[in-house]
TrEMBL record, chains A, B:
Provenance organism: Actinoplanes sandaracinus
Function noted in UniProt: Exopeptidase that catalyzes the hydrolytic cleavage of multi-L-arginyl-poly-L-aspartic acid (cyanophycin; a water-insoluble reserve polymer) into aspartate-arginine dipeptides.
Similarity-based family: Belongs to the peptidase S51 family.
UniProt KW keywords: Carboxypeptidase, Hydrolase, Protease, Serine protease
A molecular-function term among this protein's GO annotations: peptidyl-dipeptidase activity
Catalytic reactions on record: [L-4-(L-arginin-2-N-yl)aspartate](n) + H2O = [L-4-(L-arginin-2-N-yl)aspartate](n-1) + L-4-(L-arginin-2-N-yl)aspartate
PANTHER family registered for this protein in UniProt: CYANOPHYCINASE
InterPro entries in the record: Class_I_gatase-like (IPR029062), Peptidase_S51 (IPR005320), Peptidase_S51_cyanophycinase (IPR011811)
Enzyme Commission code(s) on record: 3.4.15.6
Protein name from the UniProt record: Cyanophycinase
Top EC group: hydrolase
Amino acid sequence: MEGSSRLLIMGGAAGPALLSRFVELAGAATARIVVIATASESPETTGAAYAERFRELGAGSVRALRLSSRAEANAPESEAVLRDATGIFFTGGDQERITGILGGTATDTLLHGLIAGGPVVLAGTSAGAAMMSGTMITGGDGPGVTADSVRTGPGLEFLPCVLIDQHFAERGRLNRLLSAVARYPHELGVGIDEDTAILTGGDSFEVLGSGAVTVVDAGAATDIRVPPSGPIALAGARIHVLPAGCTFHLPGRRPVTGPQSEERERAA
Amino acid sequence: MEGSSRLLIMGGAAGPALLSRFVELAGAATARIVVIATASESPETTGAAYAERFRELGAGSVRALRLSSRAEANAPESEAVLRDATGIFFTGGDQERITGILGGTATDTLLHGLIAGGPVVLAGTSAGAAMMSGTMITGGDGPGVTADSVRTGPGLEFLPCVLIDQHFAERGRLNRLLSAVARYPHELGVGIDEDTAILTGGDSFEVLGSGAVTVVDAGAATDIRVPPSGPIALAGARIHVLPAGCTFHLPGRRPVTGPQSEERERAA
């Protein structure tokens, strides 16, 4: 993350509190929000639905930008719309539609440039979250921690060195996240529950929402073996379960602070 | 574990290789095996089925011992049968039936005495595995890592300082195991996949079978907060995924060795 841009990465099924936070970060009544429903099979309907929700939540201006083909993603028309945005929101659907349609296009390059130049808020939910990472989980929900229980591919790399999974607790996806970081221990595995998000700032992210973020770090593992089939061995990995208010330092690969002291006291 | 007795703790759905290993450890053609189906709702059927399987696998002598009430568990008749056994096998079912029916009875005391005196092999699968631990998971499969996503109670404490979960990968139970160790960080969380087992020896256990054993250790956690409801915070826990051949040192809370070098080379 460069400039003062921020990423708001949601694990799916975001409730009004998280969506409001996005609107607020984008400037509330002065926000200019662009919704991109590339991941969706029904981009018109999905885009219009999110646009309507952001208007209801007080966003000054909202529009859905149609980017459903590589031709549209390379056409100059969208540039002015995106350059003017204070907040850009990627909906859910299929993350491989996002990487397949936007990957390497003028829009892809422009988005990276806008974030580097800042300030803009880039948000995504579900598939729109998955594509943010350097390496993206594209599928696999098999039981067990095995090489073939997860499929991965390159994401759009808005948040490098991280591998995001979503609907995390709801779909019991720890096995596939462990499988992925065992294969790619350079990447931090970040599993985001539904109605939960990470918000980046500087070198850290903060957890928002009603669920938790599970970070799996194979960096400290003393022994990793990934046979072509059958169970993976992964000894000495670290795991952090972080609810709202917790902060995680990415280059340090460690949680920094817990929830605010008020919540800490209530919990004690 | 005292004497030279061993515990063979299976995660459910044990295949012939694991069941054969039990028969072999109990003495094969000279084995005297006792099956206890207390956990089952149909103890006669379940007990007879396992007895038949152990006979097919070459056990010298096998019998099912009916212990379906506290009266039976306190009656003197079973003592001679158990004293003569080289292998004792607890079937699956409901672990709370085992602790409710056997807990504190003459049979409970006798089993602990036999294991301390050794050598005998005490095996259990599924519910028969869960009850082995100091603290036992009795239920809870809710999504997320929360205090109310797991229910626990005392086990029969054949393997103290450990909290066993079974059908682990197949039922996506990491959330509940994390929830349990966050509440009770003294206990090592040991999640055993189906057709997979741990075999204790000295201060260690070895992993057997086709799946993996996942060990979750909150002992190193730097921050644990368990609110009455809502997400748990657990920072800095350790996780190990251990397939067959791996060994784990219990008091040291660490994996000792990976699979044999031959397997290591094949995996490389």
